[in-house]
Amino acid sequence: MIELRNICYEHDGKQILKNINLKFNNEITVITGPNGAGKSTLAKIIMGIIKPTSGSVLYNDQDITDFSITQRAKIGFSYSFQQPVKFKGLRVCDILRIANAKKDVALSKYLKSVGLCSREYMTRELSGDLSGGELKRVEIATVLARNTQVNIFDEPEAGIDLWSFGNLVETFSKFQKEINGIFIMISHQEKMINLANKIVLLNAGQVEKLGKKEEILPFLSNANKSCKSCGV
Ligand code: ADP
Ligand code: MG
Fold it and tell me: What angle do CA 176, 177, 181 make, to 5 degrees?
């Protein structure tokens, strides 16, 4: 279990996250909410990409607040960025092999699970030649290939056509059951929200609502409050 205790994050005098208390179990939790709510910031704090100004992160009762990204990766944390990272000179098969070094594991399984044909994509370079959606799929495949207990996906739908996103949602569900791990998904997608065991509605840096789909859905339409100072 991951536990966030009184997490606050301040940047340039602005309170981006305010006193977040959350628990993540071995299930799919979707974090949703308007742009700028602090979702990516929260995901980065869980992964150790940024440090909270105050508060602590616990994993299976161990305080990991001061763990680096590498330390968290070693204890079984994986992360997929909202904007996928490009690695010039590295091929898809190289990054998948780095993610999963077990020689007897067929890497093609992971490409197939994100809707990419391995014959076509395995030797492609992770550069600008791949479309945004293809890069995103490769990054998701890389996270799945790591086969870790904690998996964080920041907007897995970004850049992916809605026609095939349903298949990806099935993939997340299948892997979560296989691994029986913690899947934290930041998403606005109805299909993803429908699948979630738990939904966190984040708004203006705070947890506005937390619960099962039926309890949260009525709140989602009200989440976009306008700015008090300019009315936008
Ligand atoms: P979300 O993912 O919910 O859209 P983010 O977590 O990316 O939101 O950002 C939350 C707020 O913090 C936004 O207002 C964003 O502009 C601000 N923010 C995030 N990172 C930085 C940064 N490095 N510098 C300045 N502001 C930032
Ligand atoms: Mg974001």
Answer: 50
